[in-house]
Amino acid sequence: MTTRPVIGIDLGGTNMQIGVVDAKGKVIGRAKKKTKAAEGFKAVVARMAEGVADACKDAGITVRGVSAIGIGAAGAVDPKTGVILQAPNLRWTNAPLARTLAAATGRPVYVTNDVRAAVIGEHTHGAGKGSTHMMAVWLGTGIGGGLILNNKVYPGFFNTAGEIGHMSLLPGSPPGHRTFEHNCSRSAVAERIIKLIKGGRPSLVTRLTEGDLSEVKARVIADAYRGNDPLVREIVNDAAHFIGIAIASINSAVSLQRVVLGGGLTEAIGEPLVRLVRASHNAAVYPHILRKTEIVKTKLEDDAGVIGGAVFAQRKGKID
After folding, report:
1. pLDDT tens digits, residue range 92-140?
2. Is the distance from CB of 97 to CB of 45 less than 8 angstroms?
3. CATH assignment of 6-121+303-314, given 3.60.20.10, 3.40.50.300, 3.30.420.40, 3.40.140.10?
4. Which one, of 203, 222, 205, 201, lies nearest residue 267 by Cα?
5. Which candidate, 318, 183, 187, 156, places its Cα nearest to that of 263?
6. pLDDT, tens digit, 9 for 90 and up, residues 36-78
7. Which of 64, 87, 103, 244 allows an S-S link to 277, with CB 3.0 to 4.6 Å?
8. Per-residue CA distances from 172 to 29, 168, 184, 185, 223 (Å)
9. For the packed helices 186-198 and 218-226, what is the interaxial angle rounded to 10 degrees?
């Protein structure tokens, strides 16, 4: 593994986080830019190249001073070619991201899925360090997952392992209400809170957002939860219950040592959410020895994808 700094990029549909990461996993230079996916693939890549230069400047080095660039991108990715096969939030299909950014920066580029990057980051430098069998569950706009089995990233035969948000959770419900993601993501929690407020339920959220319910983000939900708002507590507790059940279902199949919870909802609410998920998991999992599985909060938080992308680049795209 190289000792020169590398770039890690967490590429989302709204923002891109870019960091220069040293050999010890420390972020020594940063940049953040709007993704602006509606402007098209070439414009996004050009902004990424600008962000790489800005992060290097912040670290006091040139782009030539980094050995490689690693990207965690939401959606289906072919890490062997660096092509984004399908990324709805970026509006990309078969986008040659690695090749295009490499041409723009003069550095080799490696691409993986965003939550897979996060699980690599947590396993090497975060809350998953020291575990041999772990899973990351990221609760954000959607829900993503990543698996480490026998100390190796598990990609699955078709390289799609980790798409846990699309698992059926309530199959008897109407379309749009059936999956893990439909019911337990940060956006699903927010939508349910908004719907009930509009239906006449009182909530601290109305005051916290000054009546602008489009501002029901993770931080607002967390503030209302800490304020013992009955509506928000009901919705969050219900989501946590189902998160625990979903994790228990996976754990019964693969027998995990540790589960790391991350994403905006986890980071905002913190340990109270983790405790609820842990209790629900322990009530549902079989056999009971799996109650020893550790369910913990992310240590790296926003940096998980950046650091994981950097480690992926340090490994030159290898997952073991």
Report:
1. 999 999 999 999 999 999 999 998 999 999 999 999 999 999 999 999 8
2. yes
3. 3.30.420.40
4. 222
5. 187
6. 999 999 999 999 999 999 999 999 999 999 999 999 998 889 9
7. 244
8. 48, 9, 16, 19, 33
9. 70
Q: Where in the chain is the domain with CATH 3.30.420.40?
A: 6-121+303-314, 131-298
Residues contacting 264, CB < 8 A, separation 6+: 139, 140, 186, 217, 218
Using only C-alpha atoms, the chain has a radius of gyration, in whole angstroms, of 20
- CA 264 to CA 222: how far, in whole Å? 10
What pTM value is reported for the model? Answer: 0.91
Nearest to 182 by CA among 152, 145, 143: 143
Q: What residue type is assigned to position 43 of the chain?
A: A
Q: How large is the angle between the packed helices 41-59 and 97-105, nearest 10 degrees?
A: 50
The residue type found at 189 is V
- In the chain, what is the greatest distance between 2 CA atoms, to the nearest angstrom? 58
